[in-house]
Amino acid sequence: MATWTDWTTSQLPVVLAGVAVLAGAAALVGCFAYLRHRSLAADAVAHALLPGLCVGYLLAGERSLPALLAGGFATGWLALVLHERLTRRAGIRPDTSLAVLLSVFFGAGALLLSRIQRLGTGTAAGLDHFLFGSASTLVEGDVLLVTALAALVVAVLAVCWRAFWLVSFDPQYAQVIGLPVRWLEGVLALLTVGAVVAGVQVVGVVLMAALLAIPAVAARSWTDRLGPMLGLAAAVAVAAGIGGTLISAGGSGRPTGPWVVLVLAGAALGSLLLAPGRGLLARSLRQQATARRLQNENVLKGFWILHERGENRPLAEGELAQRGLIRQRFLAATLRRLRSRGWVAGDAKGWSVTSAGLTEGQRIADRHRRWERWMARHLQLPDDHLHDAAEALEHLSSSDLDDRLRRDLDENPPSEID
Known about the structure:
The chain is an all-alpha fold.
């Protein structure tokens, strides 16, 4: 394993450039594979490269990178073609087809690799490095070749990305407006194979699918638009490629590819947790806020119903719990929230609703009854089904929706409590 000093003085800039370019190009293609639910197909293509690499070496008689990449491209493309035939014509499920092809091609590649090693040239060939990648073996000629391949992939994406966007999200509509959907899908497949072939020397056939899928997963957590998603995915992949390379070069004693994948995984995990729109933390906070709002509304509606019945005396928490307004373990916290907003008053000895709280409670109760009447009129639900259904719908708080319900029911706006 090269030391930090060796890499810094000689090969590190070359490796950094190669890894960054390959990671960025693979991430762009991976976004379309992710959106089209083809990420596992990329994994099968990566494993299918191994026999092609071996055949390319045997035909060239030496470790010629153009010959290796050409052989890998041929078997990778063959795997995709066979996958299409098996799924569309033989009726085999896509996941089963991919599992079979991945195993068969990788098994064939392992046999060819062992044969090459028995010939006494396996070490010189360095083909075993393609299993998990060996970025440290990149030289300037290799970087120029794979950079040209990556640039071709990016150029095609830049020219056709709107068409690819339509094919990825709505292929039926794309076909209706006259786009050659099958041809575009074939181009995307070619780009996938090209990206896999270009990146296999960095992370290897085993980990190549991660280089395509993980940046897309990370970027998708931050945006719902394709353009920003492509930019974020490429940025994450390039940063992870540089970071993983520097960690590997720093004396970790491990290949660059696994480090790149681990850095990518960290970025994706952080995105899944912390992204403001789709992140798990943001979703959890929204769910908690929604739960608190529903608890507030249920208690206020309960106070209004008690007011309608003439029960206006302060009630202790135990009495309120017995009335079924809300589950006991949420009641104390909910009452404190309502008190902070001026909707209820009191303490653990007794709670009463304020005029503002009654107004809000009436609004919620009216919305509940409005939904009951609407479902009875339009859905013909039996009376014993109306209440439970309206319980869920009453919390859909929207002035526009309320106005539409009133108009449909020929109802005037509710009066406020004096």
